[in-house]
Amino acid sequence: MTERIWIRDPIAILAEGAERGVVVEGGRIVEGVGRGAEPVHPVQKIFDASRHVVTPGLVNTHHHFFQTMTRAHPAAINKSLWPWIASIYPYWTKYVNAENFRLAARLSMTELLMSGCTCASDHHYLFPRGLEDAMDIEAEEAARIGLRMTLTRGALDLSGAEDSQALAPGGAIQDDDVILADCERIIGRYHDLSDGAMTRVALAPNAPFDVTKRLMRETAALAEKHDCRLHTHLVETKQEADFARDKHGMTAVDYLEDCGWLSNRTWLAHGIYFDDAEIAKLGRHGVGVCHCPTSNMVLASGMCRTKELEAAGVAVGLGVDGGASNDNSNLMEAVRHALMIGRLKYDAASVTHLDALRWGMAGSARCLGRDDIGAIAVGRQADMAFWSLDELRFSGAGDPIAALVLCGAHAADRVMVKGEWRVEDGAPVGVDVARLRHEHHQASRAFLEAL
């Protein structure tokens, strides 16, 4: 028999009817313990949560792990998206390899976990020669630290030499048949549709401006065949929205529809420059949008229309985005930034701390097509973040859950994934953080020495 563990008497818990905590068994939440109550069935262990605010684990729906090798890179800082990516692409294509990619993935996942994240999706689209097994590396590293993953197999098949609008150099692209064969391989090996699965697979051509229509259509067909998700960047900048109209003679959303992508399998990164008709259409078809507030501010890309998207029925999730356009992998920080930029766009009453938390939890889970995570409720997976309010930043805070966002929580004291402790006392279990930092930093030197 598995042990029943009572997470007892938290300061506060982001759940209904669980004021005295929850009972965990077999990796799931099996009972909520209400005010003044005791667990209905005997428990074998008690975890005293009286120092903690307990929330669902955060869910990261868009990232680029490999980019941690070029954080604050001198060639790319203080630029908007297209000049930024044009300046940094040659470094990625030439210097990202299997060894430093493994370190980048390990570092990114560790950062995410320490920020309260329990499930992540990494949109990996860079496959230079020697990095063909990138998805396998990610799967291995996620299993090693106990993080849930959607292995998001990206792709580039159009280079700047072939199309003036494309940004990828020739060394970054792959042949369509190679891409599709690898998609089939990864799906067959890692795509687990069972409740509580630790790995699933999504297919993710990078963006309509640097992949062909054939690849978009073929990946849509593969996703339908294997019941997996679809992901791509879309209208992160006004230039991209204009590109769709100029090149394809239609809006970006109509182009998605033309490619067979307009369905509830799809979630999109950024989605800043949709017009009202596009938003309504996305909502009708159940498409999700990953809001990346930190990256959008760093690159001055714009503000996602989160309120209009949600009102239309679009699932809104959160992502930290790339390690070189955000420069960190802290999802709790992204929650706070989503609140702040949302209030700047709308007003102080229209975007609350609960909205921002919902986007990073239940909304993100919806984007990934998961109804087993993203909330603390009976039957859901026991994925939770435990936040201490012992720091000076929280002194005087009246509402513990609001304080996590308003006072700037950035590191979880404990994190549980599938009922197992993966962070204890602020430290990731089984990870030598000092060694990881040293090895990753040493590997990153190659990207600077090339200047």
Automatic annotation (TrEMBL):
The keyword Cell division does not apply. Keywords: Hydrolase. Residues 53-421 form the Amidohydrolase-related domain. Pfam families: Amidohydro_1. InterPro entries: Amidohydro-rel, Metal-dep_hydrolase_composite, Metal_Hydrolase, MTA/SAH_deaminase. Gene3D superfamilies: Metal-dependent hydrolases, Urease, subunit C, domain 1. GO terms for molecular function: 8-oxoguanine deaminase activity. It comes from the Bacteria. Its EC number is 3.5.4.32. The keyword Hydrolase applies. Belongs to the metallo-dependent hydrolases superfamily. ATZ/TRZ family. This is 8-oxoguanine deaminase.
